[in-house]
Write a structure and sequence with these properties.
Layout lengths: L1 E8 L7 H17 L4 E3 L17 H17 L7 E13 L4 E13 L2 E7 L11 H4 L8 E4 L2 E7 L6 H9 L4 E5 L8 H16 L3 E4 L2 E4 L2 E4 L3 E3 L5 E4 L6 E9 L4 E5 L7 H19 L5 E4 L4 H14 L4 E5 L7 H14 L2 E4 L3 H15 L6 H22 L2 E2 L5 H6 L20 H13 L12 H5 L19 H13 L4 H6 L4 H13 L1 H4 L28
Parallel strand pairs: 1-2, 2-3, 7-8, 8-9, 16-17, 16-19, 17-18
Antiparallel strand pairs: 1-14, 3-4, 4-5, 6-7, 9-12, 10-11, 12-13, 14-15
């Protein structure tokens, strides 16, 4: 007994049910032609993931149903090909004063033009970016179906992180587990998933195929890396990371259990994995939302330099426009370094001095500010002039404006509302400053997309970082060293450490007090910030939901 199976590791789009269905149909035809008799599509492939409150709209649900039926009709001639399609199912019950929705996160099994089974996800995650209990009710019972003579037990994502659903499938006669997933990326998630699935396979004594999708959706990004493990828990195959792929595996009857054989792509290094995640998140946000091009302020500093390198890798130089907007405090070497980086990457670059606008605004405000010394007000005016210029460029030329703030800055509010926060997407919003420097050095040593070697001038990396909004300014005038700041952010933001724990771990009381106070005070800024790709277990987005009016500091 032998079964050729295929994982459709594809990039789906939320709400594009006809387009997603056609991708599945095309994949089914290609897989069948190459001998596959089982095709696995990811969790939520029909509607995309995360669909959020679209799932509450009856018309959206009806469109999902129509797409599943369209796949069944279009693949009826693919003799004996079993297709597993992830999609929501459900209905509404309307009462005199309220509508009650009952939805399942489900998958249907299609063969020879018919839906032969539908399975509803049993374990509904409600943490980090997940809100599944808002939309779905849990399913019950196992789903086991035949594909090429192999009894396949179907699970959906979170089901496989718990013991019981897999044991139910084994008790119902499963010889192989098929787990379809929409598992958002963060650094190290690939190894974590494999370790959990290896334990799951060993627990039930069954081989397991883990089918994932790839692509960006708002702030989350999916990394592919579908894989298979044997009944002994050993990795038997792995699909590439961050790449659309029809990935094939062979399941054969051995003495004790089904054995799986497939190509094993090497896992990416942490730096390459993070870079690819940021590139894909940016590319898909631009492409799926219909933007032709992007623009950003190129300051000669490390953050904008990294964002420019990401933008060119994601979109190509011809779709990126940079502006240098010098103020009275901009160093000459900043102008030089910005010009040099734009030249290296071949993007359009323009200089627009903000000095005339800055002087005009100060003159306008002079009667109201008489007798008061310059302070952060004048610093913020400079940032806001730049925001006005960038947004004008966006309106006139259709560019999506990329903001260049990093996670360290968003955490403590070291950014100007309606100034450098102006824009539509924040590519490094979830990357702390120390990682920014590390990524810049990594990108200078590698050219993963063939857009240019060493794109970032060395002086940008080695200079002390500065907002250049007043004379002789450096970031460390206002903040602890970034190594300290980022370590506190990792513990306090991503791991919910208390102030007492931070102090017990040896952080200086003054640093802990300042950073945690600034994190709390800056919530109003973060809630007005643009979306950006999430690459840590907890970013400032769907999985960070704090009140703006708040006196508690853990």
């Amino acid at each position: 007994m032998s079964l050729s199976l295929c994982v459709a590791q594809l990039n789906f789009t939320v709400g594009d049910m006809p387009g997603n269905a056609q991708k599945i149909i095309d994949a089914a035809r290609a897989a069948h032609a190459q001998g596959a008799r089982l095709l696995l599509t990811p969790e939520g492939a029909i509607c995309g993931y995360i669909a959020e409150d679209l799932l509450l709209r009856p018309a959206f649900m009806a469109a999902c149903d129509d797409a599943v039926q369209a796949i069944a009709r279009a693949t009826a001639d693919l003799q004996d090909l079993v297709i597993v399609v992830g999609h929501p199912v459900g209905h509404d019950e309307r009462g005199p004063s309220v509508t009650i929705s009952e939805r399942h996160n489900a998958a249907s099994v299609i063969c020879n033009g018919r839906i032969v089974a539908t399975y509803a996800k049993q374990r509904l995650p409600n943490y980090q970016v997940f809100d599944e209990r808002r939309y779905f009710v849990p399913g019950q019972g196992a789903c086991v179906f035949d594909a090429g003579g192999v009894r396949v037990g179907l699970l959906i994502c979170e089901d496989a992180w718990f013991d019981e659903p897999a044991r139910q499938a084994r008790a119902a006669g499963a010889q192989l587990l098929a787990v379809i997933n929409a598992s958002p990326f963060h650094g190290g998630k690939g190894a974590e998933r494999e370790a959990v699935m290896q334990a799951r396979a060993r627990d039930v004594g069954l081989p397991l195929v883990w089918a994932h999708w790839v692509g960006g959706q708002d702030e989350v990004v999916f990394d592919g890396q579908s894989f298979a493990v044997g009944a002994d828990g050993q990795v038997a195959g792995r699909a590439p990371a961050f790449e659309e792929k029809l990935w094939f595996a062979q399941a054969q009857q051995a003495q004790a259990a089904i054995e799986i054989k497939a190509d094993i792509a090497p896992p990416p290094t942490p730096e390459r994995e993070l870079w690819d995640a940021l590139v894909l998140g940016l590319r898909d946000y631009v492409g799926k939302n219909g933007f032709r091009s992007v623009a950003l302020g190129l300051s000669g500093g490390i953050d904008s330099a990294l964002v420019l390198a990401l933008a060119v890798d994601a979109l190509g130089a011809d779709r990126v426009h940079t502006l240098m907007m010098p103020s009275p405090y901009t160093a000459g070497i900043s102008v030089q370094d910005a010009h040099e980086m734009a030249r290296r990457l071949g993007v359009r670059h323009d200089d627009l001095s903000i000095v005339p606008a800055f002087e005009a605004i100060k003159a306008t405000l002079a009667p109201l500010f008489a007798g008061r010394a310059e302070d952060t007000t004048e610093e913020n005016i400079q940032a806001r002039i730049r925001g006005v210029l960038l947004m004008a460029l966006s309106n006139k030329l259709g560019h999506l404006i990329l903001t260049t703030g990093n996670k360290s800055e968003y955490a403590v509010g070291y950014c100007t509302l309606y100034g450098d926060m102006c824009g539509g997407f924040a590519p490094i919003k979830d990357v702390v400053k120390t990682r920014v420097f590390a990524l810049a050095r990594w990108r200078n040593a590698h050219d993963p997309y063939g857009t240019g070697v060493s794109p970032i001038p060395e002086r940008i990396i080695t200079r002390p970082p500065s907002a250049e909004l007043r004379a002789d300014q450096t970031d460390q005038d206002s903040l602890p060293p970034y190594e300290v700041l980022d370590a506190i952010i990792a513990r306090y933001v991503e791991n919910d450490a208390s102030i007492a724990q931070l102090l017990a771990e040896g952080f200086a009381p003054a640093d802990v007090d300042q950073v945690t106070r600034l994190i709390r005070q800056s919530e109003y800024k973060r809630q007005q910030a643009p979306v950006g790709t999430r690459v840590t277990p907890r970013g400032f987005g769907k999985d960070w939901r704090y009140p703006m009016t708040n006196k508690f500091r853990a």
